[in-house]
């Protein structure tokens, strides 16, 4: 995070809401089902942070009974690092995890990287395209329109390396 973790907590508490940079999920014992929408949204826009183990409803206070290891394992499996059968996301982003504390209680900070243009759109596999692809606008995960998905997919095709084109016998286009 560009700002310190404690400054981020202070900011979202003062705002009374998460925002374009940070999504907060209680996820005390089980990941919230909409976490994958947020992962998709951050991956398809500028990246962001997900904080697990805080309750937005309780003023961004630590969630009672937060099982950091269990929730971590659920996230790792869902993003596809626990085996392909558990993956919830297609075109998953790079991510990192750090254990932090808020009010002397553990929380899990997950940093989601923005996907490179050639790896977009990231989408919730079970929802398919276009219904499972999102973008982040303020504190909302907004479904991408069919036109936005089309543009991202075409951008992905245009971003293919020249070496790949040569292997399949295609010639790259050269401007001018």
TrEMBL record:
Superkingdom field = Bacteria
| Gene3D superfamilies associated with the record | Schlafen, AAA domain (3.30.950.30)
A UniProt-annotated Pfam family: SLFN_AlbA_2
What residue stretches are annotated with the Schlafen AlbA-2 domain?
21-144
Which key words tag this protein in UniProt?
A: ATP-binding, Nucleotide-binding
The membrane-spanning stretches of this chain are none
Question: What InterPro entries does the record tag this protein with?
Answer: Schlafen_AlbA_2_dom, Schlafen_AlbA_2_dom_sf
Q: Which terms does the record give in the GO molecular function aspect? A: ATP binding
Query: Which named protein is this?
Result: ATP-binding protein
Q: Which organism is it from?
A: Agromyces archimandritae
Taxonomic lineage from the root? Bacteria, Bacillati, Actinomycetota, Actinomycetes, Micrococcales
């Amino acid at each position: 995070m560009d700002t310190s973790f404690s400054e981020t907590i202070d900011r979202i508490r003062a705002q009374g809401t998460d925002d374009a940079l940070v999504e907060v999920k209680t996820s005390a014992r089980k990941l919230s089902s909409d976490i994958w929408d947020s992962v998709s949204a951050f991956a398809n826009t500028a990246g962001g942070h997900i904080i697990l183990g805080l309750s937005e409803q309780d003023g961004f206070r630590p969630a009672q009974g937060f099982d950091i290891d269990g929730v971590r394992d659920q996230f790792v499996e869902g993003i596809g690092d626990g085996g392909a059968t558990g993956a919830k996301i297609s075109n998953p982003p790079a991510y990192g995890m750090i254990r932090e504390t808020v009010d002397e209680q553990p929380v899990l900070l997950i940093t989601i990287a923005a996907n490179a243009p050639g790896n977009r759109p990231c989408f919730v596999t079970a929802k398919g395209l276009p219904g499972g692809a999102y973008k982040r606008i303020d504190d909302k995960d907004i479904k991408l329109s069919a036109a936005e998905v089309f543009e991202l997919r075409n951008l992905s095709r245009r971003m293919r390396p020249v070496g790949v084109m040569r292997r399949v016998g295609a010639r790259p286009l050269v401007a001018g």
